[in-house]
Structure formats: structure tokens, C-alpha cells
Amino acid sequence: xxxxxxxxxxxxxxxxxxxxxxxxxxxxxxxxxxxxxxxxxxxxxxxxxxxxxxxxxxxxxxxxxxxxxxxxxxxxxxxxxxxxxxxxxxxxxxxxxxxxxxxxxxxxxxxxxxxxxxxxxxxxxxxxxxxxxxxxxxxxxxxxxxxxxxxxxxxxxxxxxxxxxxxxxxxxxxxxxxxxxxxxxxxxxxxxxxxxxxxxxxxxxxxxxxxxxxxxxxxxxxxxxxxxxxxxxxxxxxxx
Length: 240
Fold this sequence. Notes:
Elements: H1 13-38, E1 42-43, H2 44-51, H3 61-70, E2 74-77, E3 88-91, H4 100-108, E4 116-117, H5 118-121, H6 128-137, E5 141-145, E6 152-157, H7 168-176, H8 183-192
Antiparallel strand pairs: 1-3, 2-3, 4-6, 5-6
Subcellular location: Nucleus
Main location: nucleus
GO molecular function: DNA binding; TFIIH-class transcription factor complex binding
């Protein structure tokens, strides 16, 4: 019975599928970086053209389209909504913010006051830092900065309803206050105000050695006899 022999140049089906999968995922990574850099919706045809897929890999086009549609870092716009009836994609950032107005609205919707990381905002928003600096100068947001390069670090909405006016006299009084320069002066100031400093040395009470009570042994009075030997032993107690 004749058997079919595989030629040296043939590739097993399983190995071929694994290799194809790796090639597709590599192209997905390149496509996502391209979308992130452009920061706008891009048709799948333009993405395919940018990737410059070799002619022998054109069969991967449907698989790449499906992979992009399912990727969590990609926003998919169906061909019914996309321009020219094409499948369109856009990079999906951590925070869906791409302008100053969107940032203000996004900050106002926050339920906590923990702030938003500027590093996360820059993910997919190329003009994030310049826009944040502009909003800060206008007093619309509150910003903390990195000590190294003074770049924006965290942002909050500047709630004007929390703004209060302070008299100039109180500002001057507060500015003129001087704190003690060392721990000793701080302790003295607290004691002068009748406050016990936490650093004050507490007197320890030394207890003397305690006497141990002697244990009393309860001795029962009376004479004990061996009643079971009464017929054998003689009683000599009368001679005492």
C-alpha cells in the first residue's frame, strides 16, 4: 500500500497555524501603535496599507480585522457608521478624554476626589499636557506637579463653590506666625500652653519585692489505726 510522504519544504498544519497567529498578533500591535499615534478614526483599508503586509500574507486580512474588532484597546466603528462604508477603528485610551472640554466634563462626573493621573490622560491624547497647563492658568482645574521637571502629575476640577475669601489682616497674621525651630522649643511652647507633649518622659513607678506567702499544710489531728490488722498487732499505746 502506497503512503504519502511529506516533502522537506512542507510545513505541518499546526506549526503553520501557530506561525500565522504570531504574525497576526504582531501586526495588531503595530496597528494599535499607529492608531494611538494618529489619535483619530482610521479606516481598516488605511491600516492595512500602513502595515505593508507582504503579498504571501494577504490571506490574514480577515483575521486581522477580527482581531482589531475584539481588542480592548481599540474602539470599533462599524462599516455602517464609518466613512465610506468602511470598518473604522480608533485607539481607546484609559480615560475617554481628548480635549479640554471633555476633560472638564469628565472631572465633574467623578464621584471621588482622588484626582486623575496625567500620565493616564496622555494615553491616546497627544495634546494632554499643553491643554492641562492652559486650563490650570485659567483656574479651571487644580494640578499637582512632579518635582523633577515640574510637569503635571494629577488633576482635579476646581470647584468654585468651595472658594472662600479671607481678610487681608488674617492673611498677614498667618504669614507672620513662626513655628519653633526644634523639638525642645516645641515642647516648651506646648507646656506653656498647658498641653502635655507626647515626647515628655513619664516617671516609672518602681515596685518593691513582694513577699511570698508560705503555703500552709493542713494536718488532720487524731490517731490512725490499721483496723484490718487488729487481730494480729498488739496495742502498745498505753506505754507512751
